[in-house]
């Protein structure tokens, strides 16, 4: 049995909101992990105010699985749930799974081994493929990365800062030292909730770590399957998703820009987004508005332009009495 203050080697953290029907597949996959005998690990499920049977599901698994822990985070949003997991983790390495991302049998071991062999790596991302419950729209591959689907080839590669591409939060493994030392205590992007599709909390976190000098890597040996239900492939959901991503972009874009250059970069980003909208309309004609993927892309560009004004309005918004 693990002692209360015992240090472990690896923590798997799973934020969940009403994931009682989804998380069982994730936990079953973790039960089948091929773990070396000398690797001590734990699993923490962080319940983000679920109203379904999530608590009962976790309690049932805990009966014969002592490494599984349960925690409640009342502040809504994936960023807050991840922060809670980091505070509770008893290991220097923390791997984040969503409640709908199913790890391969070697995911934990491959993540632990990679970070041990790359001491300058603060974050590593997984190879994530989709498990679709419905048909994908035509040309879906153009927007697949926005649903946390990531396949950057068969070889590990570093995410270079100048490329402005980073791994999604699902399947992200972090070094606790990097996370705790360089993330601002006040989170600007909390993550999607029932009331908001505003996202980007994972990029905000990784950008802070990258700017502090840590390396960010892609490791194809860490394989996941992302369960994507049919409703997440529909036009209304994808448009809403892109709206939320677009609105968050001012925050994630400006984190890597010095304060003096930000006014200039806001204009340049807006001009580039306008160029992309015009190109999409010229290229696709009427289908720019009827094709699901193209309309989703245009929505992203439009709300990326709106994003600076959105954050400005939040700055001057008077608190409710």
Describe this structure in words.
Helices cover 40% and strands 18% of the residues. The chain has helices at 23-31, 54-62, 78-88, 107-117, 176-182, 201-211, 235-254, 262-284, 287-290, 292-316; strands at 10-16, 41-47, 68-72, 93-96, 101-103, 121-132, 157-158, 173-175, 215-228. It is globular and about 60 Å long. It is of the alpha/beta class and 321 residues long. Helix 7 (235-254) crosses helix 10 and helix 8 runs antiparallel to helix 10 (292-316).
> What is the assigned CATH homologous superfamily of the largest domain?
Spore Coat Polysaccharide Biosynthesis Protein SpsA, Chain A
Number of domains: 2
| Biggest sheet character | 9 strands, mixed
Mean pLDDT, to the nearest integer, reads: 90
Q: How many strand units?
A: 9
Beta content comes to 15-25%
Q: Based on Cα principal axes, name the global outline.
A: globular
Q: What is the CATH C-level name of the largest domain?
A: Alpha Beta
CATH topology-level fold name of the largest domain: Spore Coat Polysaccharide Biosynthesis Protein SpsA, Chain A
Helix percent reads: 40-55%
Series of secondary-structure elements, N-terminal to C-terminal: EHEHEHEEHEEEHHEHHHH
Class by SSE composition: alpha/beta
Rg of Cα set: 20 Å
Number of helices: 10
CATH architecture of the largest domain: Alpha-Beta Complex
Query: Span between N and C termini?
Result: 50 Å
Poorly predicted residue ranges: none
